[in-house]
Amino acid sequence: MLKERVITALWGLPLLIIAVWFDQPLPWFALLVALWGLGAVYEFYRLVGVSKERSLAALGLLGTVLFILIPYCPSRLALPLLLTAMVVLPLGWLVLRPRKEGAFLGWAWTIAGALYVGWLLSHLVALRLEGGRDWVFLALFTTFGSDTAAFFVGRALGRRPLAPRISPRKTWEGAIGGVLGAVIVSLLFTLPTPLNLPLSYGQAVFLGLLVSVFGQFGDLVESLLKRNTGVKESGRLLPGHGGFLDRMDSVVFAGVAVYFYYIFAVA
């Protein structure tokens, strides 16, 4: 599995870097995030059974993409209108369809998928627009550093389970290793490189801690979803990594954390 992880990363990481770096003349990063979001929300709907309801799934897929791209819409009414549509349109379809059993459960999962994937991923797109590429790189690379350190430290030193009822293989040792890995990567953004950010050492350490904690929380959330739906991985399209939903679990929460840090502490 480790070999597969490395091979997938070798082609996936350059694609991500290029999309973030070159955001003109087309918003390549937003388009990549939208495609990723489509794959992730489809896996989500497949896990919870919404994919069997094609009309509901189609509304959820459309809503997810619109949430991801909504930072590009200048109107203040765009988000309230989209949220209202995501609540009302699936309800309208459920009222009209012949079968009424399980209607509200399908409606709730449809909205949950669009918000969980689309709304959370939109913060990364907004961060690219408002903060620039280097803030996005910080969110992504610090998350990757946290995940990688947690994986290897957990394998080598892991003894005490972190959340045995959710993910038995995650340990406190791995979680602490993840925090240290995130802090180290975050500190790299204080160095005089093309990715330098105006951060003090204390701010970089805080951001690393913030990203790691929120990222690991997101990982546990997705693990809980998979445990509740009885699957080990959300998909198999990314060898060694599982599915699209598996690879965005920590990034979405870390992206939200960095975005609001930028909004309240920097902008």
Provide a descriptive summary of the structure in words:
This protein has one domain (2-266). It has helices at residues 2-21, 28-48, 54-69, 78-96, 103-130, 133-157, 172-188, 201-229, 244-266, and strands at 161-163, 167-171. α1 packs across α2 (28-48), α4 (78-96) packs antiparallel against α5 (103-130) and α8 (201-229) runs antiparallel to α9 (244-266). The protein has nine helices and two strands; from the N terminus they run ααααααββααα.
The residue-averaged pLDDT reads 91
Q: CA-to-CA gap between the ends?
A: 41 Å
Q: H/E series, N to C?
A: HHHHHHEEHHH
The radius of gyration is 19 Å
Q: Uncertain regions: pLDDT < 50 for 5+ in a row?
A: none
Strand sequence of the main sheet, in spatial order?
A: 1-2
Beta percentage is under 5%
Sheet/helix structural class = mainly alpha
How many structurally independent domains?
1
Question: In a nutshell, what does this entry contain?
Answer:
The chain contains nine helices and two strands. The chain is an all-alpha fold and 267 residues long.
Helices and strands in order, then pairings?
Layout: H1 2-21, H2 28-48, H3 54-69, H4 78-96, H5 103-130, H6 133-157, E1 161-163, E2 167-171, H7 172-188, H8 201-229, H9 244-266
Antiparallel strand pairs: 1-2
